[in-house]
Amino acid sequence: MSDTIASLQIGEKGFIEHLCLENIPLKLLEMGCLPGIEVQLIQKAPMKDPLYIKVNGSHLAIRKETAEKITIVK
Amino acid sequence: MSHDKVVKVALIGNPNTGKTSLFNQLTGLKQKVGNYPGITVDKKQGKCKISENLTAEITDLPGTYSINPTSLDETIVIDTLLDEENELYPDLIIVVAEVENLKRNLLLFSQIKDLKIPTILVINMVDQMERKGINIDIKQLEEKLNTKVVLISARKNTGIDQLKSIISDYQKLDTTPVVNISEKIDKDYFTKLKSAFKEFPLYKSWLLITQNKEYEFLNDDQKQLVLKFREDVNCIKRYQHKETIFRYQVIHEILKETYKVDKSQATDLRSKLDKILTHKIFGYIIFAAIMLLIFQAIFEWASLPMDLIDGVFANLSEFVKNNMAPGAFTNLIAEGIIPGIGGVVIFIPQIAILFLFISILEETGYMSRVVFLMDKIMRRFGMSGKSIIPLISGTACAIPAIMASRNISSWKERLITILVVPFTTCSARLPVYAILIALIIPAKRVWGIFNLQGLTLMALYLLGFTAAIMSAILLNNVLKIKNKSLFVIEMPNYKLPSLKNIFYEVVEKTKAFIFGAGKIILALSIVLWFLASNGSSNYTNAEKIVTSTKENQNLSEQALQKKIVAFKLENSYIGVMGKTIEPVIKPLGYDWKIGIALISSFAAREVFVGALATIYSVGSDEDTGTIKQRMAAEVNSETGEKRFNLATGMSLLMFYAFAMQCIGTLAIVKRETKSWKWPILQLVGMGILAYISAYITFIIFK
């Protein structure tokens, strides 16, 4: 299985490889979550969900289920 | 020139960009808040003198990250911009961007710009540029974006004059699109689209296709065409994604040459604060402490002004009674209208304090952290982290709370939030609780520090929250709605709150509450007064009937008057209603007089105390002390015991904790869910729960 945003360690960075268009809201793309862009996991909420990420200059929180659908290359 | 020209300006921007600060800066006190037709989203408008003979009519549109809406509030932006017949259709758009997140802000700008409406880009918070090591080449940016760019600091009031001078020349602005969407996505498709809607800019036609909505301003042929283009849903979705990626590419290229950040200068206040505020232990402790502070404030700080308001209105009633000619009209004013208005005004202190705290939490950026912390927990109950805001707001009033649920993007999570919010102890329950607790719970201390009455009140709050959570769990299991998660929130920078923004926010929200919910409460008070002071023939002939009854012959004048008043109450319309429902409420420990109070508070629970005041002291003053004394003296005619004993009092507390007695809330639920099904479910479900728990409580304490 390939890496996803959900498999990042806190502070770790990766590059977004692929977003599954069926499951990812357009809004996430519009907020800067795009293929080829660097993404960093800033923090996890208690109970490890949602995830707090930095992508394209935006600081966003997304749920783990969404993060698992975005594959990355470390 | 003899009279002013008017330019209609729309302010658009991402949330947290200081758009509202700019709006406040431009319009000052010359703003008004209305509603958009059909929905209750605040429509903020204001006027601003631009030059000698030009006035701008500015509309502050809801904050959004994109022209493609994900919530009801956001649809207003696109609806306003697509329809040229819309009364708000702007002559000029100001897109407000924030200096640090320029890239993301430019996505929205590029979408707006492509609609070929004159658009200015305002970059806000430039006072922080130096500290953050940011450098912008304005000249080049203007060239690439085909428009004027203004650097401002809405807080420090810089750049506003320059903005005004550009507004005054708005007709000279270039309306060439920034991004040519057809270029990279699918040339054939977009060429077809272009020739199908020759009269519109290409991007507008594309938006007409992508939005799942029928636009009334289109003619029948155009509507048919739109439907045809919409057939291939997957293709549209794919193109939307491609479009977004393409826009970012263009923006990236533009910024590469015009926007420089020296990262070494960036401070890390954000990460330091985040470490503490979203910490798995301290995060919750801090949140709990803030909640405690808010509740403390709502009840401690508000009590003094509330007592004052209560006193003023009581005095006013008395003054009117003593100084106007006696008659039905005077009674209407003194017993109907004045207490009615008072019943609304008395909530202002609590509501204002609550909105004060909420707007501070939102302005500072802390609210997003709370959402982040609570999301997983709330999801177990079928809600979202975003449900926290409605649940907190619900302690003041369910109506703004339900409106605050709009930014929850999952329908199921939002619906559950809307359905359970009315369980939280709103401020209208407070006067009911206060008087009942004072009657049945002794004011003694437990364990030396806690006041037993205070503890009871706290227990009732907890009961409300527990009921909300429990019913959420139930609904989560029962409701069969496919839950598609769209949870994406921005974690904005921490900011010091701006006093000006908070002031306007509190004033506006409070005003909206008073004129929204207030109308209903006032109207009901008048209806109630009418029902209590009119009745069938027994009522009108009360004096004759009572005086002529044999056993009353020997009574003193005063006692006789009292009998007449009591007889009148019993035979007034509302008295008859109370008697009618007596058999139903008897198992709960209530009599027909309490029945009257129940009926009158059916539409707004705070009417309970006022109704009891009317019942136990028709024609007397409104002082709570005396109502309380009269209630305490009331005797159950069957048992000879006190009417408001522990069992009846507890039973009433339970009833008011659970019953859905608020017509304003029902109306707003109907409007937000677009169906009668949900408010009826609330009314019936909460009613049954209230009845059963009141019954059980009465049995236990009897």
What does this structure look like?
The complex is a heterodimer of chains A (about 70) and B (about 700). Chain A is mainly beta and about 70 residues long. Chain A has a single domain, classed as SH3 type barrels (Roll), CATH 2.30.30.90. Chain A contains 2 helices and 5 strands. Chain A has a 5-stranded antiparallel beta sheet. The mean pLDDT of chain A is about 90. With about 700 residues, chain B is an alpha/beta fold. Chain B folds into 3 domains: about 5-265, P-loop containing nucleotide triphosphate hydrolases (Rossmann fold), CATH 3.40.50.300; about 280-450 and about 460-480, no CATH class; about 500-700, no CATH class. Chain B is about 60% helix and about 10% strand. Chain B contains 30 helices and 12 strands. In chain B, strand 5 (about 90-100), helix 3 (about 100-115) and strand 6 form a beta-alpha-beta unit. The relative contact order of chain B is 0.07. Mean pLDDT of chain B is about 85; it is low at about 620-625.
The first-to-last residue Cα distance of chain A is: 13 Å
* Anisotropy-based shape of chain B: elongated
Strand tally of chain A, please?
A: 5
Q: What's the CATH class label of the largest domain in chain B?
A: Alpha Beta
The most extensive interface, with participating residues per chain, is: A-B, 30 and 41 residues
Instruction: Please report the total strand number of chain B as a whole number.
Output: 12
**CATH topology name of chain A:** SH3 type barrels
Topology:
The complex is a heterodimer of chains A (74) and B (702).
Chain A: E1 13-19, H1 26-30, E2 38-44, E3 51-55, E4 58-62, H2 64-67, E5 70-73
Chain B: E1 5-13, H1 19-27, E2 31-35, E3 42-51, E4 54-60, H2 72-82, E5 92-98, H3 102-113, E6 119-124, E7 134-136, H4 138-145, E8 149-151, H5 160-168, H6 187-196, H7 202-210, H8 220-230, H9 233-258, E9 259-261, H10 269-277, H11 282-323, H12 328-345, H13 348-364, H14 366-380, H15 388-393, H16 398-403, H17 411-420, H18 429-440, E10 445-446, E11 450-451, H19 452-478, E12 488-490, H20 499-532, H21 537-540, H22 542-548, H23 557-571, H24 573-585, H25 592-600, H26 607-616, H27 624-633, H28 646-658, H29 663-673, H30 677-701
Parallel strand pairs in B: 1-4, 1-5, 5-6, 6-8
Antiparallel strand pairs in B: 2-3, 3-4, 7-9, 10-11
Helix pairs in contact in B: 3-9, 4-9, 11-12, 11-13, 12-20, 13-20, 17-19, 18-28, 22-23, 23-24, 24-25, 25-26, 26-27, 28-30, 29-30
